Amino acid sequence: MKRIQFTLIALMSFFSVLQAQEDHKDVPPVIAEKDLTAYLFVYFTGNKIEEEAVCYAVSTDGYHYYHLNNNKPVLDSKIISSTGGVRDPHILRGEDGKTFYMVLTDMTSSKGWDSNRAMILLKSTDLVNWKSSVVNIQTAFPGNENLKRVWAPQTIYDSKAGKYLIYFSLQHAGGPDKIYYAYANKDFTALESAPKLLFVPKSEKACIDGDIIEKDGVYHLFYKTETENPGIKSASTTDLISGNWTENDNYLQQTKESVEGSSIFKLNNSDDYILMYDVYKKGRYQFTKSKDLENFSVIDNDISMDFKPRHGTILPITRSELKRLTAKWGTPEQLPKINNNPVLEGYYADPDILYSNKTKKYYIYPTSDGFDNWGGYYFKTFSSDNLVDWKDEGVILDLKKDVSWADRNAWAPCIIEKKIKGKYKYFYYFTGAQKIGVASSDDPAGPFKDSGKALINAKPDGIKGGQEIDPDVFTDPKTGKSYLYWGNMYIGVAELNEDMISLKPGTTKVIAVDKTFREGTYVIYRKGIYYFLWSEDDTRSPNYKVRYGTSKSPLGPIEIPQNNIVIQGIPDQGIYATGHNSVLQIPNKDEWYITYHRFSYPNGIKMGRAGGFHREVCIDKLEFNPDGSIKQVIPTHQGVKPIK
Fold it and tell me: Which residue spans adopt a coiled-coil conformation according to this UniProt entry (predicted)?
């Protein structure tokens, strides 16, 4: 393995599954491609024993890479290997979206290129801590007495088999290198069976450095030939282990220099692929780009790295994964600043935000989005201590399991914290099957217990259209009375009893508003003024936006300013459909934030009506003019800075 490879294909099957999930809109994808906003480059650095170890680098654009940990190893080769050195790291995201698999060549070059018989399998759930196992092909499987070398293992998920397939090149004495495979066991600690032949070119000449990516149901294998004119070629199949490969006779490298160690990966939120290979006699790489995996153009001038890698791979990662890596090994000085919007990864909408006096944390309670036609059935919550880094606290209410009167259309919740008899309690109002219910808990992260019946299941008197959805709960600081607001195409309001799970009889009324009102009422109080915020237009419309009016009472009437837009999209920045908001006041400060959803960036606007149920949650600053009017919020990709 004097090859310097740049194998980038951890994403191969991941992207195929990702695309399948994106196309199947009934349920949200495990990882939405929109959330893949960075890259992890895993590599080693040279042929000295101290250089044969796993290193990390990161990028935010796929073109400019910066090393972590001062370009020093992030794993100790002496602990994870049988030879004291490792080479050729390949990393893959698992089908569950949160488990990672890495495979390595177990060898040191100082002992000779024909010295190794083993590979290393590693597994992680955080990219930081790894469990490892050594698999020695020669000792594990009879019939390999004349095995000479085991090189460059990689992993791909075989969807037909439902297993992880590990492929690698083997050379036995007297024969050429060929690419073999075996399935990993369930724990990813060993191979299920002896290696079987995966691919050998029709020339029957040696081939090494196999690298597979899936595109449109076809698997593309890139490999180095060892013919009289060695170079990078490819072959394709629709069935990984069928042995039926269609070979491309063309060499794919765009240079006359000697090359090896190719690898390919797909750029995030793009149709472009990058194929890289080592121009090893010149001590450099060449980078090329393609849309069809057949025609490649050189992009060397667009690429930069502050390190010199050997044979590695690149994994698309999320912002939270990038932050986890930089928290452990430091943030490179040159790394561009990371956007903080959207604040939640995944598809979520209709966010209600709360500061808990009990836990001293912030919480967001959203609609679980990404289901076809708003078909979600469960609610989650997310917690943060700085408004920027959010922890998924899991499902807090599942309509199918926890609610007897509704099992579908879990939408637009809201929450309030109340101190009752010296203890904090949390009352959670939610939409289920176009009715409104309430659940309670002693903790803001739940679990919540449903009251057992719908709180609102009919229209107020005089209302004929619209839906009973989108609750908002508000306690008047002047009187201590709590009110529930709701409605699509109308604003209904009623006073809540002290138990917070029932309405005070005779208090239901309708508050008049103008024709811009659609849904999503939210009420706040500041300096003697009650502000009513609402959403205009349809959530599927790019023009979905927030407007406001003011009142001297929590029950209206509402006065509507002439310029009353709170927030709207910015099309030339790819920001659309900014609506259904909530508002947070930092305790004891005149400091305010607006939480809202928008079409997912960057592809939501391309989804048609489905953009209206593939939404994401953002936070920006909310400010007031000296006369008390609301300054129009400029929605941003940057989001807000962490607060203490």
Answer: none
